[in-house]
Write a structure and sequence with these properties.
heterodimer; A: 33 residues; mainly alpha; rod-shaped; B: 597 residues; two-stranded antiparallel ribbon; 62% helix; globular
């Protein structure tokens, strides 16, 4: 059971990190050249 | 403090200075895919790897693709290590001690730790990890996480150097070339040098030695009552140690094969290996300064960054050495009452030897502690928990500054470049012009993401530390009360977020609370900081080069070095000074007043 929880936690963290990549990219457009 | 101690510190820096330039120029050739003497041997291996994995080495990646590839690689290697730890007892390979499966919380913490180049160890390695797990799970991670850090630093440097480019290189190529051309060749020679000095390298079961003087030991039994036993033998752990030791230091990983880490005679047998280990921690990070200068066409800028790092390193080692060279005032008080010690005689001549390996002494312990926390190494040859309060504050403060004083392999360079961007921005504000960095205009997007990078770090450290000192689960791991206990918790989360991995050894972090929260801290401290850094690099790469003008702030000058050091100190001091005041600084003042914890 714990193994599944940690597996899910690992996938969840890296999924959030990939979303964060696109979040950082979307910050652009705030008036930059 | 002794002249001998200062000479050793001076010799260390002189050797680093000599090694930095050739190392940096070599790395520039490796990552720019120019010819090197190792090409005839490694070229075919590299091509074979690309063919097997289907990588097109000529395909360039945007920063988002580069970041996504890095994240996928890190997730895959994290899960591989977790699986190895959990299954080590059923794999019939290299487990002569028949060690059991690693408990899930600890296995995940360790997998996160080695994936992020932290190498925080909440376990006793020789009692927990099989040889297979040490080699295939942990030592391989030492290569991968180091090569990943170097690749990211090179991607940032390309972002500065390239003009109107949408790409930063190819993550898989940078990872492969860093491993094959830089880490592996040095580690092979390095491991042999360690073996020549007495480090062990074998796959034997542990030895048992008969004690010349049997010991009587009293310890709590299963029911909590004291049990006295007579100990006549000692187990001497064995293993493939030298090969792991080499990459542990060169890759600024720091995870020891043995629990005593670099204080263990099998890991660090002689004063010569001690000097080699300290130099190898700084070798690649110092070289990357020269690589920066070479790849951006501004060698003076690389040396200016090197100078800033050197100033901060010297300030740290001088403070730590001074603090540890002081006798403990409480022991001095004892002197007055001990009949065998006459007036004026000290029970701690030369300074504070508690927690230090007598083979290395105070100067080399202070230097090692400074170097290992300037970088994100975390290997230790002395127990930081036993340092004097201000001596222990130096490693803590080094990590709090973001480990940009030479720093981890790659991580130190890209962290320092974020501070360079902030320094250039501040200089631009002072003169009222749009800041430029090596011809690239630094605008709102770069500054926003640089500040995101800078703010994530204290947020996770102070947030988790604050919660831990409020919860019973957090307080349960502390072995000392008062400010020293706070320092233990603060150090743990700082070390985890900074991906350092060293510990104030007094804390028991092998609990569900610390294993899970420190695991999250390590992942956040690595990947949530890398992403904004890559975004800055990707945006810089797209920009045009603006010709220098009278208003351009030169980034190869002494003034730039002074400004950079000031910005680092101000950001670090303003962020963490309140926490340091409640920890080591308060402990120092109370110690002077006769209180210890």
């Amino acid at each position: 059971m714990s193994d599944l929880v940690f597996l899910a936690a690992s996938f969840a963290f890296f999924f959030v990190a990939v979303l964060y990549v696109y979040g950082c990219q979307s910050l652009k457009g705030g008036g930059n050249a | 403090m002794t002249p001998n101690g200062w000479v050793q510190i001076a010799v260390f820096f002189a050797l680093l200075l000599l090694a930095a330039k050739p190392m940096g120029l070599y790395m520039a050739r490796v990552y720019e895919r120019q010819k090197t003497p190792l090409d005839p041997v490694l070229g075919p291996v590299e091509r074979l790897l690309y063919r097997v994995t289907g990588v097109n080495p000529d395909a360039e990646m945007r920063w988002t693709e580069y970041g996504a590839a890095m994240l996928i690689f890190s997730l895959a290697t994290l899960l591989l290590t977790y699986a190895l730890e959990r299954l080590q007892y059923v794999i019939p390979l290299w487990n002569p001690q028949h060690l059991a499966a690693v408990e899930p919380y600890l296995a995940w913490n360790t997998a996160a730790s080695f994936t992020t180049n932290t190498n925080w160890q909440a376990y006793v390695p020789e009692q927990t990890m099989s040889y297979l797990t040490q080699m295939a799970g942990l030592a391989t991670h030492n290569f991968w996480s180091a090569a990943t850090g170097m690749a990211l630093a090179i991607a940032f440097i390309r972002g500065i150097a390239r003009r109107e480019s949408k790409t930063l290189g190819n993550f898989w190529v940078d990872l492969t070339r860093g491993t094959l051309w830089v880490l592996l060749p040095i580690c092979i020679v390095y491991a042999l040098a360690l073996v020549s000095q007495g480090a062990i390298q074998n796959l034997k079961p542990y030895d048992t030695a008969t004690l010349l003087e049997p010991q009587t030991v009293t310890a709590p039994g299963p029911d909590g009552k004291p049990v006295t036993t007579r100990v006549t033998t000692q187990t001497i752990a064995q293993g493939p140690l030298a090969s792991q030791e080499a990459i542990k230091m060169l890759g600024t990983n720091g995870g020891g094969f043995m629990n005593a880490n670099s204080a263990h005679p099998f890991e660090n047998p002689t004063p010569l290996t001690n000097m080699l280990q300290m130099l190898s921690i700084f070798l690649i990070p110092a070289g990357l300064c020269i690589t920066l200068g070479k790849m951006t066409g501004s060698p003076g800028h690389g040396w200016a960054v090197f100078a800033a790092m050197s100033v901060l390193w010297f300030a740290g080692v001088a403070t730590c050495y001074w603090a540890e060279a002081q006798p403990n005032p409480l022991l001095h008080g004892v002197n007055q009452r001990v009949a065998t010690a006459g007036p004026g005689q000290s029970l701690s001549p030369g300074g504070n030897m508690e927690g230090k390996e007598v083979r290395f002494g105070i100067a080399d312990s202070a230097l090692f502690a400074t170097v290992t926390t300037d970088a994100s190494c975390g290997a230790v040859n002395a127990m930081h928990d036993s340092f004097m309060p201000l001596g222990g504050m130096v490693p803590l403060a080094n990590i709090m500054m973001g480990e940009i004083i030479f720093g981890g392999v790659g991580a130190g360079m890209y962290g320092m470049l974020i501070f360079v961007i902030l320094s250039v921005f501040i200089a631009g504000l002072m003169v009222g012009r749009t800041p430029e960095y090596l011809g690239k205009k630094v605008q709102a997007y770069e500054v926003q993401l640089s500040m995101l990078y800078v703010l994530i770090f204290p947020l996770i450290i102070l947030g988790f530390a604050a919660v831990s000192v409020l919860l019973p689960a957090g307080l349960a791991g502390i072995s000392n009360h008062g400010p020293h206990g706070l320092s233990q918790v603060l150090y743990a989360y700082t070390s985890a977020a900074g991906n350092n991995g060293s510990a104030f050894a007094g804390i028991n972090a092998n609990t569900h609370w610390y294993n899970s929260t420190l695991g999250i801290t390590m992942l956040a401290g690595r990947f949530l900081m890398i992403v904004p850094m890559l975004a800055v690099a990707g945006n810089l790469a797209t920009k045009k080069i603006v010709p220098p003008s009278l208003g351009t702030f030169p980034v190869n000058s002494t003034l730039f070095t002074v400004l950079l050091v000031s910005v680092i100190l101000i950001v670090g001091a303003l962020t963490f000074f309140p926490a340091l005041s409640l920890g080591p600084i308060l402990e120092h003042l109370l110690l002077r007043a006769g209180m210890s914890f």
